[in-house]
Design brief:
Oligomer: heterodimer
Distance between the termini of chain B: 35 Å
Shape of chain A: globular
Number of domains of chain A: 1
Strand content of chain A: 15-25%
CATH topology of chain A: Rossmann fold
Structural class of chain A: alpha/beta
Number of domains of chain B: 1
Strand order of the largest sheet of chain B: 2-3-4-6-5-7-8-9-10
CATH architecture of chain B: 3-Layer(aba) Sandwich
CATH topology of chain B: Rossmann fold
Radius of gyration of chain A: 19 Å
Number of strands of chain B: 10
Strand content of chain B: 15-25%
CATH superfamily of chain B: Alpha/Beta hydrolase fold, catalytic domain
CATH architecture of chain A: 3-Layer(aba) Sandwich
Helix content of chain A: 25-40%
Structural class of chain B: alpha/beta
Largest sheet of chain A: 9 strands, mixed
Radius of gyration of chain B: 19 Å
Number of strands of chain A: 10
Order of helices and strands of chain A: HEEEEHEHEHEHHHEHEHE
CATH superfamily of chain A: Alpha/Beta hydrolase fold, catalytic domain
Number of helices of chain A: 9
CATH class of chain B: Alpha Beta
Helix content of chain B: 25-40%
Amino acid sequence: MSQQPTGFSDYWNAIDAELAAVPARPELEAIPMRTTHFCTVYWAKITSIGPYRIGGYLSIPHGDGPFPAIMQTPKYGSVNHVPDYNDRKRYVMFTLMHRGQRLTDSPWAAAYPGLLTDGIASKATYIYRSILADCLRGAEFLQNRPEVDSSRIAITGDDLALITAARRPGFSFVHAAGLMFYRLMENRERTSAYPVEELNDYLRAFPEQSDSVAGTLAFFDPVHHVSTITARTLLSVGDGGAVGGPEWLQPLKDQIGGAVEEYRVTHRGGTDNDSIDAWLANQLGREPMSKFRRTLP
Amino acid sequence: MPATERSPETFVSSVQRPGDFDDFWNGLLAEVGEIPLNPTVEHIPMRSTDEVDVYEIGYDSLDGVRIAGWYCVPKESYLPPPYPGLLIVPGYVSEPTLPKSWAKQGYAAIGVAPRGKLRSNDQFNPGYPGLLVHNIVDKNTYSYRGFYIDACRAVDFALTRSEIDHSRIGVHGSSQGGALTITTAALRSDVITCGAAGAPYLCGFMEAAALTHSYPYEEINEYLRLYPERERQVRETLEYFDGNNFAPMIKAPMLVYIGLEDDVCPPETGFAVFNAMNCEKTLHTAENCAHDAGAFWEMAEIEAFLAKHLQPGAPAHRAETTVG
């Protein structure tokens, strides 16, 4: 399980080298519509490999920093929300759009369904090579912001968050949930739900590519990355016996380099949202806040 | 002033129904009825399986906007026609569903992509965020005017299909999909057999925005922070698009399910729209659940409800969880 594929380090080092050769050239534009009395929200543009101009929402609290910060890696889908109101009160927030998502879909727009298998026959052409580069560039951008307390930076998301944390050690805390690339070739046998079904669709159409697809995906399985994580990690864990459950995630958990905690999801969003919010707030030195207001003024 | 505990089940909405509400929507339905549907159906072998054929579809809607969608049908070798039709309507930020798992259950399932969604955004693309407040001061150009009609046009598409039993057409979605379930069941009450609406959005817009800072309703708060003088116009527009005003028009049986800690679509607004329905109806509430509305447990209830009213012929098979 934890055996890295041949050429793993060379592959990822090459991406780092490509990034290093491309200046990020950040550009911030305030968005009055999203700005409040307690924070300013910017659209931040940065250059990733390609070169490709990507972007994200950067929210900075008013007042004297530096502030704890959270990077949200992009979800699978065309839209990522503006950072949550409560989060913007407490943290510098950076929500990245990878290339092809809305607001960064020029010159190239991702297809849904389709993104998961775009270029998957080869690790050199796989779209997630560039998408991970976008995440790494986003991490560099946030970690170097002067408003950010470099000792209190968290990253949240799916596999992209884990891989980014593994390759950019400036994060102190990680929350990971809803992993897609972890054991994906096994997972695909157990589901017909999208987006994983995209992979089934692809391999029905191109069964002869099964080995090469598996070879590509091995480079993106977080199990091969997480040993270099130094942050404290909270792993959301599903039900016993299920994909995403404790047995399923145990090999990943065993490989994570830093301290690991499990959060057992209840499937009750109010409870789960509050629990994860509280964990992050406690790590980052802020007060927990529920998105759901139980009392009204 | 001391803070008060919320009591969503006793909430009474203040949304008013404009006197010309019916005229407004009947006029739009008549207008779109004059536009030829021009349906297209293209088989997508890559997404098809041994049990289900997948098609990319297109049709014309209000203002001549071309609308895309997915159409998933059981293969005759898997299950012979006729099939009940099922519209799966999308959430605000989620991608339109490719409803293969519903087809495997025996439905001819249409994943609707109203204007502005990917593949339906060449002619109209207000973006996300943006859709909720696009032209929000003018009911005649507000984003949801065409958006609601696009979902209704998917019913018209279903009625062109000979493999669908036109007396068994249902609609289902969560969040914005919950809203579209309500509006479609109301505007096409002559056709819709049943509807299952999760965490319904677009009901009590202004009340919801006052109860939360979560997106998408936060778009309204942001808009009014910037343009407070437009509040009256915004309120006037939204009354024409409020699920509470569509709910009494529904004739088909409805299942509504909500989370009692939903920060995205406050439970108060879920109770209000449910109370506004005069049809046969069932409400499921989920303690400690947020915008998931208890979907982890509720999906089995939804499947049973739809199967009871639409009677698909396939063996039991779980559908994908419907997301908002």
